[in-house]
Amino acid sequence: MKRINCARTVFAGMLMAAMGTLGAKDLTWTGVPSTTWDKTTANWNDGSGAAAFADSDNVTIKAGTEMTLGLNVVPGNVTYDIANAFNLKLSNKNISGVKSFEKLGAGTLTITPAGTPGLAFYGPIDIKAGTLALNGANFYAAFSDFSSSKGTEYVVENGATLQVIERNSIGKPDLLNGSAASVRVKKGGTLQFGPGTGSHAANSLTNLYLEGGSLVFKGNGADNNIGLLAVWDTVSFSGDTPYVLEKPSVGNPFWLLSPGHPTRFDVADISGNEDPDVTFKIPFSRNDAMSGQTGKGRGFVKSGAGRLTLANMGANDSLVANGDVLVEEGVLDFTQQGNIQAKFDQTFTVKTNATLRFSIRNVVGGV
Fold first, then answer.
1. Is pLDDT larger for residue 151 or for residue 304?
2. b vs e for 303-320, b when ≥16 Cβ sit within 10 Å of the residue's Cβ?
3. How far apart are CA 234 and CA 247, in angstroms?
4. CB within 8 A of 137, min separation 6: which ones?
5. Pair 148, 120: CB distance under 8 Å
C-alpha cells in the first residue's frame, strides 16, 4: 500500500500560496518615462527603485495628472491618493481582478472611457476624500462589470463626492433587472448627477442608500428632460436631517420607477415628529419607452416608519407613475400646491398601522 504524507502535501500547498502572495509587489506610480500603464515600462517604484507592473501587484497613484491604460491589467488593491486633478483614460482596455479600489486625497479623479470594456472588477469602490468623477455618455458599456457586477458598491464617505457627469454613466442597460450596482452615501458625502449633455436618459442603480448624505442634480444649461436616476430595488433614506429633493434651476429631471418590479422607498423617521422626512418635488415617470415594454410600470412600495411626501415641482408638472402602490409602513402623503396631479393606473393598498394621505383634490387620476 502506498502511503501519502498528508502533512507534507498540505505544507507544500501552503508554501505555494505564500509564495504567490509574496510575489505581489507594492508599487507607487511615477509616470516616468511614460504615463501609459502597461507591463513593460518601469514607471513605478517598488521601494528599491524603478519597476514595471505585473498582475496582482498592489498599486498606489499619488503623482502626475494623467494615466492611460495601455493594456488589460489585473492589479490587487488600487489606491488613488491625489491632491489635484487626475485623469484615468481607459483607452479601450480594462482593469479587472481588483480586491479594493480607494480614492483618497482632496483631488478629483476623472475616469474617461474610450470604447469598451473598461473597469471590470468586483471589489468595493470606497471614495474616502475628494471626488471620483465618471465622465462619459453611455459609460455603462465601458463599466460592464465595474458598476454592474453582483456585490459591487460605491461608498461615499464624509467630505467625499461621487460625480456622475453624463447620462448612462453608471449602471447597466438591463432595465428589467437593474444594474446590480449600489451607492451608499454617508453623512457628509455627496452623490451628484450632471451637468450632462443628453436628454431623456438616466443613470441606473440597484440600490441607493442615503445615510445622511446629499443627492444633488446639476443642470447642463438647457431646459431639457433629463432622467435623474433609476433605482430598481430599494431607495433608503436615513440620517438626522429630512430630505427635500427640489427641481433644479436648469433642466427638468425625473425619477424613474422599475418596470420589472415595484421600487421600494424605505424612509426612516428622520424628523422625530409628524413632519415630512422625505419630500419629492421631482416627478416620477413611467419608463415603458426606455424598457421597450408595452405594459405599465410596476409602481412602488413605501416602507419604513417615516413620512414620504410627493409634492409638486410647479404648475403643469405631474407626479406620474403606473402600477400598484403599497403603503407598508409609515405615511405616504400627496401634497399639491399647483396644477399637479399624481396619476396611478392601478391599486392602492394600505397595510395595518400605515397611512395614505391625500391633501387636496385631483391628486389621483386625471381630469
1. 304
2. bbebbbbbbbbeeebbbb
3. 22
4. 166, 167, 168, 169, 196, 197, 198
5. no
User: Does position 86 have pLDDT exceeding 60, yes or no?
Assistant: yes
Kind plus residue range of the DSSP H or E element containing 22: helix 6-23
For the cut 60, the answer to whether the pLDDT of residue 128 exceeds it is: yes
Q: Give yes or no for a contact between 202 and 225, defined as CB atoms under 8 angstroms apart.
A: no
355 touches 332 (CB < 8 A):
yes
User: Which residue, 192, 190, 255, is CA-closest to 225?
Assistant: 255
Residue 175 near residue 230 (C-beta atoms within 8 A): yes
Q: Which residue has the higher pLDDT, 158 or 114?
A: 158
130-148 pLDDT tens trace:
999 887 665 543 343 444 4
Helices then strands, counting H and E runs in the chain, come out as: 2, 34
Number of C-beta neighbours around residue 275 at 10 A: 12
Give residue 312's Cα distance to chain centre: 26
What's the mean pLDDT when you consider all of the chain? 77
Q: Give the torsion sign (CA, 44, 46, 48, 52).
A: negative
Average pLDDT over residues 190-203: 70
Q: How far apart are CA 54 and CA 197, in angstroms?
A: 38
Q: In angstroms, rounded to a whole number, what is the distance separating the alpha carbons of residues 42 and 24? A: 16
183 vs 110, 208, 364, CA distance in Å? 18, 5, 32
The rounded distance, in Å, linking the Cα atoms of 142 and 75 is 18
Among the listed residues 273, 346, 283, 340, the one whose alpha carbon sits nearest the alpha carbon of residue 305 = 273
Nearest to 78 by CA among 46, 121, 139, 40: 121
